[in-house]
Records
---
Amino acid sequence: MSGMSKNPREALVRLAEARGTSLAALSTMLGRNVAYLQQFVGRGSPKRLAEDDRRTLAAFFGVEESVLGGTAAGAAMIEVPWIAVSAAAGAGADPGSERRLRPERFSPETLMAVGIAPRTASIITARGDSMAPTILDGDRLVVDGGDRNVGRTGAILVLRRDGDLLVKRVIAQQGMLTLMSDNPAYAPVTVSAEAVQPIGRVKLLLRMPQ
């Protein structure tokens, strides 16, 4: 973006004004308190944006992370494919065509921090409201295809059932799987382990402001 300030605080203010959004709305998007970015801009606290916050903001504004104080363009980054399929946070969705969209770029440290090997990472889109408020309609999910283990902790997994692609909390017990939604309006479903195919565990969530 031409004319952008080298000061990440000034750049953030200008980007927000150009997009017509507020620092409070952006803070909420990041899952922070509403004053988070205002304090970053006005008080210099924190001194630097957290890496995940900076990456999310850069993706939202369509700028390099370096504009917001991140690694300079050209530094080693990892591209994670964004696949044109949707996992239903609801009743089920046809996986459709596995056409690849524009990849998202992550630092190696970001993927390492959540335990994803670059070769097993992919991004898909969630549809529906059964996993709200944890996962909202339109959220993008970074899925670790190398982690398909189903345990008793209620990890969030993408899985295939009867040809549909779902995103649910999954608990394994005595050869059965319980598929649970975070939205209490949706009742748990118990199926045999053979009835579903785990695709991968959700490790990161990319959310755009409403």
Note: Residues 129 and 147 are 24 Å apart (CA to CA).
---
Amino acid sequence: MKQIKTLLIAAILVLGASQTMNAQAKTAHVDVSEIMTKMPAMLDAQKQLEKLSATYDADYKKMAEEFQAKLKKYDAEAATVTDAVNAERQKEVQDMQKRIQDFGQNAQKELQTKQEAITKPIYEKVRASIQKVGKAKGYQYVLDGTTLLLADGPNLTADVKKDLGF
């Protein structure tokens, strides 16, 4: 009877241990930011955004220079023109200043929208590659390496880069 009890306890322990082993998920990590910053498509996207930003900056600078020139001219002529003309010029200067501010805000919003539009498909491609590599290697969870406190498991960053072709 005692042997049956011992055998039963041993069987329960073996079954419990195998359940625990099966419950452990295979995890790996990948550094998405490293992939994104070194990916050729992302580097091209950054160049596009820099070019667009330079265009907006040039336009903004041109508008600001015109504003400063007009302001300087109006200040120099303020004593020689009537109060009605000065009031009209003041309104014109305020309108011009508002247009410049609006242009700056709109340019910033457009740059942000363009950045999101360009980077979203790139990120989706990286995400799909991570899933593909993770599944091919038998991992149930792949964590982004930039948010890990401990990354003791396998690093799939090189495998994902290889899958993406760089």
Note: Confidence is low (pLDDT under 50) at residues 17-22.
